[in-house]
Amino acid sequence: MSEVFSTRTAEPAVQGVEDFDLARARDGDDDAFTRLVRPLQRELHAHCYRMLGSAHDADDALQEALLRAWRGLARFEGRSSLRSWLYTVATRTCLDAVETRGRRALPVDLGPSSDRVVVGDVPLTEVAWLGPYPDAGLADGPAGPGARYEQREAVELAFVAALQHLPGNQRAALLLFEVLGFSAAEIAAMMDTSATSVNSALARARRVVAERVPSLTQQRTLRRIGDARVREVVAGYSAALERGDADALVALLTEDVTWSMPPLGHWYRGIEAVTDFAVRIPLTGCGSWRHLPTGANGQPGVGCYLWDDEAGAHLGWAVDVLTLRGGRIAEVTSFLGSGHFAGFGLPDALP
């Protein structure tokens, strides 16, 4: 089978060309199969991320799902749409992965915040960490007529982190119903269960998510703040770090701000603790910074680059995802590691 993962997006054909390609794909034409699935790949990839909490795991799951679909295409009888069938395959693939890999976490899930800076914090390699998701290509609006969440709302950090506290079947039911707009009957068929079981899973999942996700989503917050203020906050945050300006940074933060840095386990809550950390570590203890704005999880983000003497350049260090409230930064989640950069289209280094 030829490589089918692509960043292209389009509306899927329903008849005509799709029927022709479906017949050819069943006869073993992998190019026809690629044409069939390409328009749906981006939304399927986002679904896999919501299920698994990692863009890298989503890559693997989507490739495995498409391979399963390719091998099982002869069993697709056309009783449902091709989109529904592919979501069935992708969801079952993700449920298999959930069983073997468990849930992903953020530092706030592991223990209380630290009151003072922890110098020499080391990565916790035994923890499966939640990862960031690039905004590029995310569709606006719901993916189905019955969907409650916008596509960008459904990748916000708070929402994806809350999903990780659900068992796989509840996670899948919530996403298929609330994000993608499938009916309980359709989900029951996808998951080989009853509509009663689906409705029960939905009720339990909604309770958990409601407890963990703010009532005001980042999408609504960002619309209230306005693009100009969002750009101003991102630029001010970047400039303050590059200048080592603690006062300018603090002026951008809420009183109850949090800062976490997966894969480091310690995290900070409140302006005093966050200021202590910021002054001791990024502002004075790391060296020269450079930054590029980006978009992550439907939220403003920043690619952070730290000077490396040996390389003679600023190298990719972290992708910071900013959660805003009232025109200020309420959360900084710094996803450490240059491995995140390629997915965001960020360069490996800056001068």
TrEMBL record:
Q: Where does the RNA polymerase sigma-70 region domain lie?
A: 36-103
Where does the record place the SnoaL-like domain? 235-332
**UniProt superkingdom:** Bacteria
Q: Which UniProt keywords apply?
A: Sigma factor, Transcription, Transcription regulation
Q: Which CDD domains match?
A: Sigma70_r4
Q: Name one Pfam family in it.
A: SnoaL_2
Q: Which residues form the RNA polymerase sigma factor 70 region 4 type domain?
A: 158-207
Record keyword Translocase present: no
Q: What are the BP-aspect GO terms? A: DNA-templated transcription initiation
**Coiled-coil region:** none
Would the keyword Transcription be found if you checked this record's keyword annotation?
yes
State one molecular function term (GO).
sigma factor activity
Gene3D superfamilies, A to Z: 1.10.1740.10, 3.10.450.50, Winged helix-like DNA-binding domain superfamily/Winged helix DNA-binding domain
Signal peptide stretch:
none
In terms of SUPFAM superfamilies, this protein maps to:
NTF2-like, Sigma2 domain of RNA polymerase sigma factors, Sigma3 and sigma4 domains of RNA polymerase sigma factors
Give the family this protein belongs to, as stated in its UniProt record: Belongs to the sigma-70 factor family. ECF subfamily.
Give the record's subunit note. Interacts transiently with the RNA polymerase catalytic core formed by RpoA, RpoB, RpoC and RpoZ (2 alpha, 1 beta, 1 beta' and 1 omega subunit) to form the RNA polymerase holoenzyme that can initiate transcription.
Protein name listed in UniProt: RNA polymerase sigma factor
Give the organism, scientific name. Streptosporangium carneum
Recite the lineage of the species. Bacteria, Bacillati, Actinomycetota, Actinomycetes, Streptosporangiales
